[in-house]
Amino acid sequence: xxxxxxxxxxxxxxxxxxxxxxxxxxxxxxxxxxxxxxxxxxxxxxxxxxxxxxxxxxxxxxxxxxxxxxxxxxxxxxxxxxxxxxxxxxxxxxxxxxxxxxxxxxxxxxxxx
Length: 113
Ligand SMILES: [Zn+2]
Fold this sequence. Notes:
CATH class of the domain at 2-68 and 101-112: Alpha Beta
CATH topology of the domain at 2-68 and 101-112: hypothetical protein PF0899 fold
Radius of gyration: 17 Å
Strand order of the largest sheet: 2-1-6
Order of helices and strands: HEHEEEEE
CATH architecture of the domain at 2-68 and 101-112: 2-Layer Sandwich
Bound molecules: zinc ion
Strand content: 25-35%
């Protein structure tokens, strides 16, 4: 299961960081999931509930925020929400654009004590 390996590494990152900061437990985690990332937010949530047990995150609650995708035109620098599979700029029609947002999963912040 794809999400489970993502979640395991996220928990590992937070746990390592929390230990370095001398925290006893992590109470809250805010995760950002890009709308174009390959992960399913519900599956992530489900995997988190399983993967957190026995870790420093055992008592943590999670907030999962889905971040809209954003592309930037390489020609005119217009920012727009891409409609896959096409990344055509709505302003000048250039078909190649770069992704600015929405493909990644990352930890926005977490809290602990
Ligand atoms: Zn353009």
